[in-house]
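Q: What structure does this chain adopt?
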Amino acid sequence: MDVGDDAGTDPSPPELNDENPVSDNDTNAETATDADVTVDARIDDEAEAADDADLVDTEEAIAEGGDRFSWTRILAYAALPIVALAFALGDGYLWWLDRSARESQTAAEESVKAAIESTSAILSYRPDTVDRELSGAAGRLTGGFRQQYTQLVSDVVAPGAKQQHISAVATVPAAASVSATENHAVVLAFIDQTTTIGNDAPTQTTSSVRITLERVHDRWLISQFDPV
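A:
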């Protein structure tokens, strides 16, 4: 073997430069890093989009809530006076009904009492006091009925009572209100009348009449006297 030839040979390994290819491990690491960055970026984008959607939903909810609140206040402010007015009208109507009922009840009681007293007065007389009694009774009447009664007393009743010594006593055993308002009333009355002519035995008659009364200057006066 030639030693000189071996010594002249350079066994140094080949030199590395920048153009040499990168190992597979480095390439895989870079690829994984890029993938992680891409995933992170995508997650960030989705999170931002979700936040934007939530913000929009929140703003819409606030707007809708504001609209509902505004309409609620408007309806409340409009409804409260209406409800208050309804209650006021209801109370006023109930008060009017109560007052009307009380007035009708009072009118019924007063008109029945007046009908009983006036009926007895206009149908009762004695021969020696007929003019005074029936003239006074005419003051319990009103309108056309008063004129008719006065005329009848003057032309028929008073002269007959004096000539034939006729006396009459009328009572009202029962009477009931048919209708009654503040100034007008109708009463149904049952009349018992006992009549005596001279020395004859008394005779008794029973009848029923529909009596209409009007309030005149706080007095209940008979305006109609109709047999039924």
